[in-house]
Design a protein that fits this description.
Structural class: alpha/beta
Number of helices: 12
Radius of gyration: 22 Å
Distance between the termini: 34 Å
CATH topology of one domain: Spore Coat Polysaccharide Biosynthesis Protein SpsA, Chain A
Helix content: 40-55%
CATH class of one domain: Alpha Beta
Shape: globular
Order of helices and strands: EHEHEHEEHEEHHEHHEEHHHH
CATH architecture of one domain: Alpha-Beta Complex
Largest sheet: 7 strands, mixed
Length: 346
Amino acid sequence: MKYSIIIPVFNRPEEVDELLESLLGQEEKDFEVVIVEDGSQIPCKEVCGKYADRLDLHYYQKENSGPGQSRNYGAERAGGDYLLILDSDVVLPRGYLRAVSEELDRKPADAFGGSDRAHDSFTDTQKAISYSMTSFFTTGGIRGGKKKLDKFYPRSFNMGIRRDVYQELGGFSKMRFGEDIDFSIRIFKAGKHCRLFPEAWVWHKRRTDFRKFWRQVYNSGIARINLYRKYPESLKLVHLLPMVFTVGTALLGLLVLTGILLLCFPGTRAEGWCLLLTGLIPLLLYSAVICTDSARQNHSLKIGLLSIRAAFTQLTGYGCGFISAWWKRCVCGKDEFSAYNKNFYK
């Protein structure tokens, strides 16, 4: 068997239904599906039963241990030459597996990954969040963009690896967040050949609202410091940009507030206007870039405007998590931690 598709699931039966439906339409048919129910209170066993006679599907239930350990559980029971790791909230275009096969036929790889896009059926908020997570103006293109500030590290929503390499490296670590980047770092450190498959992209739903999105990126900021403590060389300039953005936004906001206060007094209005514009113009210019680029890509001004909120949520959320973790781990010497453990995936 060529592919084993491993999908950890936590309380998402509706999304599993959509993902399995998209697997039925794949042009490449040489694959099995391994569903690992990670201690869900709302299981997807009944959903999986709908596809039992149409897919080579294996369903397992286990106690909750997080997505990384659930992927390892599935990998131990998989029989494919390649393991394809997907999140339960993705949907595959018809040519996904064909694109993977074509890339492997063109040039072998030990590990690989693809990017993600927003489907037309996604909500405007999901499209805005998708834009923020994939745009060069927010992530530097490190999540699979054509323009990028750092090399591509496969991530667990769309990752592939040879089964023997997975076993050699021991799979995912017990990190609660950032475990996919940890795995990708170990893949590179082991000297394995890892690359981006541009045409093997997925539709990725991500978070459904900005509160959940904040939790996700805040923990991502914490995870970056946790990774730095394990692999100091892994911290690059691009990873510092959200922290710089967060501090800069706070300082610019302080200038704006100070300017408004000074405008209230006749003798300091000139200084007030100067501080107000100094703080406001950079924020407005960045917002205009985000809105224009997103509106052009999504053909929607509303999504462009929502993308401003998504971009500021992403960068400041990540930056706050990064700063908090840096203080606690690098200054105070505390152990690895994360802020949102139980309700992040709900």
